[in-house]
User: What shape does this take?
Amino acid sequence: MTFVAPILTSVFTLFCGTTYVAFSLYPVIAEVAAEAKVRPERALSATVIAASVAVAASPMSAATAGMLAILHEYAGITLGQILSIALPSFFMAAIVTSFSVYKRGKELEDDPEFQRRVAAGEYEFMHTEQKKEYVAAPGARKGVAIFAIGVVLVLILGSFTELLPSWDGKRLSTPMVIQMIMLTAALLIMIVGKVPSNKFNSGSVFRAGLMGVVAILGVSWMTATFFDAYQAELINVFGNLVNDAPLLFGFIVFLFSLVIMSPAATVAAIMPLGVTLGIPAPYLIAIFACTCGDFIIPGANQIGCVAFDRTGTTRIGRFVINHSYIRPGFVMVISQVVFAYLIAQVIL
Assistant: This one.
């Protein structure tokens, strides 16, 4: 569970570009781990972190689209080059993260809080009952196929930018192509799958995406205004430090991500500063995972999984930041940066 759950759940994030699509799997992971007598904290903490950081390796995420727009203009970097570094470094970091929590805490049956809940009758194992075989809704398979085709088109056009249409010598930007392809795919899915229009805006992914658009636009706009106004001062403060040790810029990005609370907004607000400071593109790709520092202060996924874990092993401490996700969070981000840096030295 500790190794399979993070990888499996992250695939959902990689495929859809948002960590919210993995939310439905967290209760399942908690219950399956408990039934297997495995401390749920181990699997849940690694899974939540891996699913969150996966946006920095997803070809469909707004964060990756933002990185592509910045780096393509800066150094001609393609989507394929970003993913060739981000994807393998992500999976290797996810494995390291799972190892970091593999023996964390006491075994489930020896945990005092779990024993208390069992003794008080607050916890009972859910024994699996025979259920009806799952039957996909009409058009579901066709909808998944259309979505997969859209992802493949994004990968192809993002990697081979010479295929993009151009007018008057100006080529259509890759982020714009991503939006056009996936909006078209959404329309085709609705038509082929015969999805009622009144149900479209009630989906969890749509609501999460709409909230993300509002949050990202507001935060990144505000932050970009701040950086534009004080760009000279920031360059003076960080310029010499970053030029001597470019990877230290990742620490700056990580600190800002704690406040901005969005990888995409962090990319939009902070990465242009890295370009202005003249940090090489391979270093910027290597520190891409540093935009995912929002795990420090527990958010919806972290808090939700505390509730999903009925055994009580997944916790948020009295000081808020001393929670179950701190260790896997730091291990995930640091190891991914290290792996990405090493891979970038070979590829770019």
About this structure: Residues 43 and 113 are 18 Å apart (CA to CA). DSSP finds 16 helices and two strands in the chain. The beta strands are 166-167, 170-171. Residues 204-229 form the longest helix (26 residues).
